[in-house]
Amino acid sequence: MIRSVAAIILALSLWVPPVTAQQAGWPNLDQLLFSTLTASGRAEASFWLPDRPEPTTATRALGVVYEHIPGSAGSVSIAVGLYQRVAEGWAFVGPVEGLFGNSPREVEFGPTSLDLTTTMLGPNEPRCCPTLPVRWRIDLATRVAQRLN
Q: Is residue 2 in some structural domain?
């Protein structure tokens, strides 16, 4: 009986196509981010933070990847880049310097800067478990992040 239920669940999961960013109108974001922000072409995690949620109206985006540091025991580096929509698709404007933390979110684009939140280690927290929300501002002209809190 358990095998039958497992077979039905597997069949249904194969029948329902996954919704990917590419199917939703976005380009292959892994290819775009990994080719411009990683040395290895792979990442442990990546984030695409556009100025608008719809691919047809978005004009700017922030890309963030966490790449495994070779030879380390699970450590990652962060690489951040700014992207702009052009006639051919999305173009890499350049790297962003000075941004740190995990789980980038709450991005707000303005005319000359963008703000976002990441999670960093708070005072006396173990390295495994950061909980401190930190707000950042990235100057779009210089692509330099500044911590706000």
A: no
Q: Where in the sequence is the domain holding 103, given as residue range(s)?
A: 20-147
- Quote the CA–CA distance of 23 and 79 in Å, as a whole number: 26
Contact 108, 117 (CB under 8 A): no
For residue range 119-130, what is the model confidence (pLDDT) as tens digits? 999 999 998 889
pTM for this one? Answer: 0.81
Classify residue 10: in a domain, yes or no. no
Give me the number of domains the chain comprises: 1
Whole-number Å distance between alpha carbons of 80 and 91:
14
Task: With beta carbons less than 8 A apart as the criterion, state whether 98 and 109 touch.
Answer: no
34-64 pLDDT per residue, tens: 999 998 888 999 999 999 999 999 999 999 9
Residue 32, classed as helix, strand or coil, is: helix
